[in-house]
């Protein structure tokens, strides 16, 4: 299998962590992908030009990160841990937590893109403030009651860990001063899941 991704991508990192937890790291070739380079192989794999993309041995292409992670959970060498519960209230709660984490990450990425891809004269402070408001509200909700796990972290915990890792990398870790419970939570996650440290991006 081939995983098209980039080390700084929090969404690609989710797939790499899931692969590690399911014993599939050695079965996946990591292919560097640049979402800003038109005409690259990435566009051939995903017409949206987004990462990650997982190309299976039979040529089937999977995207986005949630689809990839669920595939790895179902096809991993390790039967446990289960990253996606079967259809039940637990599954819907887990997917909602993951959606919250991904939404916070999306807002953080958009803040970065505003300054990276738009000339300073066209920056829109109100729009950035709106995205930051989403980040602040989402993190405040999670800080009030950090998600726990019993036997092992699930997909939503991977999503949250990668979300916080993105804010460490791209936003100078400013979230830490406001979210001491989540700081402790991330330390526990990293201790439980070695793939988190193994996939730490460096600029």
Task: Describe this entry's structure for a reader.
This protein is 57% helix and 6% strand. The chain is an alpha+beta fold and 203 residues long. It has two domains: 2-75, Glutaredoxin, CATH 3.40.30; 89-193, Glutathione S-transferase Yfyf (Class Pi), Chain A, domain 2 (Up-down Bundle). α1 packs parallel to α3, α4 packs antiparallel against α5 (125-144) and α4 (89-117) packs parallel to α6. The chain is globular.
Key features?
203 residues, alpha+beta, Glutaredoxin, Glutathione S-transferase Yfyf (Class Pi), Chain A, domain 2, 4-stranded mixed beta sheet, 9 helices, globular
Classified by CATH, the class of the largest domain is: Mainly Alpha
Domain count, please report it.
2
- Looking at the structure, the CATH topology of the largest domain is Glutathione S-transferase Yfyf (Class Pi), Chain A, domain 2
Q: What can be said about the biggest beta sheet?
A: 4 strands, mixed
The helical percent reads 55-70%
- Secondary-structure-based class equals alpha+beta
Please report the total strand number as a whole number: 4
**Rg, please?**
17 Å
Poorly predicted sequence stretches spanning 5 or more consecutive residues: none
What is the H/E order? EHEHEEHHHHHHH
Beginning-to-end CA distance, first to last residue: 26 Å
Query: At CATH's second level, what is the architecture of the largest domain?
Result: Up-down Bundle
Shape: globular
Continuous helix count? 9
């Amino acid at each position: 299998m081939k995983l098209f991704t980039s080390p700084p991508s929090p969404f690609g990192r989710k797939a790499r962590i899931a692969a590690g937890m399911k014993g599939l790291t050695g079965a996946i070739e990591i292919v560097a992908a640049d979402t800003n380079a038109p005409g690259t192989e990435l566009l051939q794999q995903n017409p949206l030009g987004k990462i990650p993309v997982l190309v299976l041995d039979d040529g089937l292409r999977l995207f986005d990160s949630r689809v990839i992670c669920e595939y790895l959970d179902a096809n991993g060498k390790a039967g446990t841990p289960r990253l996606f519960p079967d259809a039940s209230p637990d599954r819907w709660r887990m997917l909602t937590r993951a959606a919250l984490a991904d939404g916070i990450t999306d807002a953080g990425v958009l803040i970065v893109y505003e300054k990276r891809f738009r000339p300073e004269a066209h920056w829109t402070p109100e729009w950035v403030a709106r995205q930051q408001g989403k980040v602040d509200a989402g993190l405040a909700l999670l800080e009030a009651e950090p998600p726990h796990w019993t036997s092992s972290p699930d997909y939503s915990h991977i999503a949250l860990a990668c979300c916080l890792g993105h804010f460490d990398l791209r936003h100078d870790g400013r979230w830490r001063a406001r979210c001491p419970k989540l700081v402790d939570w991330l330390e526990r996650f990293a201790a439980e899941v070695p793939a988190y440290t193994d996939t730490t991006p460096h600029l």
